[in-house]
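Hi W.,

Here's what went into the run:
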Amino acid sequence: MLPLNIKAPEFSLYATPDQKVKLSELKGKKVILAFYPADWSVVCSDQMSLYNATLKLFHKYKAELIGISVDSKWCHMAFGQERKLHFTLLADFHPKGAVAKLYDVYDEEEGECRRALYVLDEEGIIRWNYLSPVGINPGADGILDALEEMSKNKKAVY
Amino acid sequence: MAFSMRWKKCQKIKKLFIDMLKPPVSEKDHAQGAKNAPIVLVEYGDYQCPHCGHAYPILKKIQKQLGDDLKFVFRNFPIEESHPNAVQAAVASEAAALQNKYWQMHDALFEHQYDLSAEGILSLVLNLKLDVKQFASDIQKEELFQKVEDDFESGVRSGVNGTPGFFINGRQYYDNWEYDYFLNYLRGLLQLK
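Here's what came out:
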């Protein structure tokens, strides 16, 4: 994983079939980057469904959630619609896994992203990271603790 | 030991300390069983989740087996977009609580999991002989909805990553919860006490 307190590398990926998202466009917001192996995993314990339900808590901290996997933009579109996801899924599809590699969370053997989380502050600096063991949904408690800590520190500075 | 191994071990230890139930069980919770039972089992559940439906009779049997040794607490963890009726079912249980029939409604919802539409829930209200008018006005109360939301938030903050999510004496339980295994595990805990 990339270390803390460095600038998160810039990238630009498809969010919908005709629209790309650049990381730098999100400057001014906290950003949660959730790399995950694949769309369409089991429903009830599914990480993305949980995060969908947790969005309101992320938004309390003015944080934007972004899911990233190597699935294509069309696959993401179908997955997002079927699961009624209310956040952006980015397709790290071509060249495959390039952004995951940039963030040091690519699983060469499986050809998928690892289950890894980064939380960036308003300036795009990495403030928290977590690599989850394979097959374990990391939940959202770590992200929320990190966001809470960040807003506390901010108050202390100003 | 290689760095990655040490790191993994460290994460595991960290998880043991971090995954504590927040907030702890209190008077605000719905609880069954002896007040000072040596084992307090908390379930974060979703009335429309099939896994929770599967756990429901297992937990009933375990409660029966362990008797006064077990206190059982249920907190709401509805995952709305996957289970569109889960929130209204949770609110219905809280409304039934206002008429002192929380657990009857809790059981009825799981036993009636195949239909948790408004009509389905109304039939449960009638079966339980709740005051329908009172119920209809209670389910619109914001504080009941807020209670469900607060339960969900407490679950997320405690590390629940799906349903059912169990905590035993405040610590998250990740292991198997099928009847024989779970009962043995809990009995083992009692022997340690």
